[in-house]
Amino acid sequence: MMMVQGVLVGLIVAFCAVFSAWRLMSPKLRLKTLELIAPAAAKSGAGAWVTRLRSQTVAQLAAGCGACSHNKTAVHHSGRRR
């Protein structure tokens, strides 16, 4: 039972490390990473998953820096509130 628990904790920690690294990568580095893992993912049956991640990453690159608000109807006033 303790061995199973150790393996499970190790898998959770590894998943969290990969997820954190992915979120901190730039979109260009994400695309390069996806290009590297695409052949292996296609062979293992995860090709659709990689394709979806690639399309989301390309959309992030096309959107610009991401500093703009997604809510286009929001009005931002500088200075004092009235």
Folded structure, characterized:
The chain is an all-alpha fold. The protein has a domain at 21-63. It is built from three helices and no strands. It has helices at 2-24, 27-44, 47-63. Helix 2 runs antiparallel to helix 3. It is flat. The mean pLDDT is 85.
Task: Give the gist of this structure.
The protein has 82 residues and is mostly helical.
Q: Uncertain segments of ≥5 residues (pLDDT<50)?
A: none
Number of strands: 0
DSSP strand (E) fraction?
under 5%
- The arrangement of helices and strands along the chain is HHH
What's the end-to-end separation, in Å? 63 Å
Structural class: mainly alpha
The chain-level mean pLDDT equals 85
Rg over alpha carbons: 19 Å
Shape: flat
Helix percentage range: over 70%
Count of helix runs: 3
Descriptive terms for the model:
3 helices; mainly alpha; 82 residues; 71% helix; flat
Write the layout of secondary structure elements.
Layout: H1 2-24, H2 27-44, H3 47-63
Helix pairs in contact: 2-3
